[in-house]
């Protein structure tokens, strides 16, 4: 997990701790074809039970994504915070975050209660939240939460900005890297990203390497192995680390690990274990009677 995702996940979950607010953050580029957002990376998802239930059903999940994209598009167009009641009865505050390459939109949902489903012709029309009686802090905390997100993004700017600059292709390459950095444990491929971002596969491959100095496949393996090292050091088995990082074949994981680190995962784990025991022994000796 990248430092930006760790930090975002930490404070988003902390803000959700009282069970009244639910948050998610998305990054997107704007399609040159029709001005719609190309949503390619979610940097933190809300975990309220109702939304998880909705997303568990494929058709409802697709509908949720469609409406979310439409809200993101509106947020980009207006640059203003607005409230919307989704077709499944979840009240959202849709908050654009001033940023570039790509841009970000924060969804703050009222997880305290859910409302009846809206008719199709009523969905995606901004609403006044007051008659819906949201949690008291729902409106009040939006400026503070928005400022926190902006501060985190500014602190980790190098992780989400693209050396490719403001061009649409540069934004899409940044989004491709977001998927590699934040979703390496899921199936990530050049072909899938090419289709999702509407960029020819060869062009995406060439520009990704030019921008980041490595191929997408190399970058993906480096992120996975870096995460695996932390898991192994924390006590995970080689097979557990492989699956947790997105490798279905533990043997292939071992070959990639050896290629990047210079030793097998098992040897690396044993070496780290001995180093840890040595440090513990020295600390115990230093703390003993003098």
Question: How would you describe this structure to a colleague?
Answer:
The protein has 290 residues and is α+β, with helices and mostly antiparallel strands. The chain has 2 domains: 3-164, 2-Layer Sandwich (Beta-Lactamase), CATH 3.30.450; 216-284, Orthogonal Bundle (Arc Repressor Mutant, subunit A), CATH 1.10.10. Helices cover 54% and strands 13% of the residues. It has helices at residues 3-15, 49-55, 58-78, 137-140, 142-155, 157-160, 168-182, 190-197, 201-212, 216-233, 238-244, 250-261, 265-287, and strands spanning 21-30, 37-44, 82-85, 91-97, 103-110. A 5-stranded antiparallel sheet has the order 2-1-5-4-3. Strand 3 and strand 4 form a beta hairpin. Helix 1 runs antiparallel to helix 5 and helix 7 crosses helix 9 (201-212). The chain is globular and about 60 Å long. The mean pLDDT is 75.
Q: In a nutshell, what does this entry contain?
A:
The chain is an alpha+beta fold and 290 residues long. The protein is 54% helix and 13% strand. The protein contains 13 helices and five strands.
């Amino acid at each position: 997990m990248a430092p930006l995702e760790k930090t975002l996940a930490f404070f988003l979950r902390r803000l959700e701790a009282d069970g009244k607010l639910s948050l998610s953050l998305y990054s997107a580029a704007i399609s040159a074809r029709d001005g719609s957002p190309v949503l390619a990376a979610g940097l933190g998802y809300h975990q309220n039970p109702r939304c998880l239930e909705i997303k568990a059903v494929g058709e409802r999940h697709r509908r949720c994504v469609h409406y979310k994209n439409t809200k993101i598009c509106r947020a980009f167009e207006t640059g203003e915070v607005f409230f919307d009641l989704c077709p499944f009865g979840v009240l959202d505050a849709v908050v654009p975050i001033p940023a570039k390459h790509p841009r970000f939109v924060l969804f703050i949902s009222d997880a305290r209660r859910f409302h009846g489903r809206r008719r199709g012709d009523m969905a995606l029309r901004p609403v006044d939240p007051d008659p819906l009686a949201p949690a008291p802090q729902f409106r009040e905390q939006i400026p503070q939460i928005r400022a926190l997100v902006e501060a985190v993004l500014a602190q980790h700017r190098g992780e989400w900005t693209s050396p490719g600059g403001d061009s649409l292709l540069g934004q899409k390459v940044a989004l491709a890297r977001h998927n590699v950095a934040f979703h390496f444990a899921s199936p990530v491929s050049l072909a899938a990203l090419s289709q999702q971002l509407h960029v020819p596969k060869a062009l995406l491959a060439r520009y990704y390497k030019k921008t980041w100095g490595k191929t997408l496949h190399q970058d993906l393996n480096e992120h996975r192995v870096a995460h695996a090292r932390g898991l192994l050091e924390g006590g995970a088995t080689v097979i557990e680390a492989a699956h947790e990082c997105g490798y279905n074949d533990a043997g292939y994981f071992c070959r990639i690990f050896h290629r990047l680190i210079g030793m097998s995962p098992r040897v690396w784990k044993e070496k780290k274990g001995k180093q840890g025991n040595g440090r513990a022994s020295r600390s115990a000796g230093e703390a003993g009677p003098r």
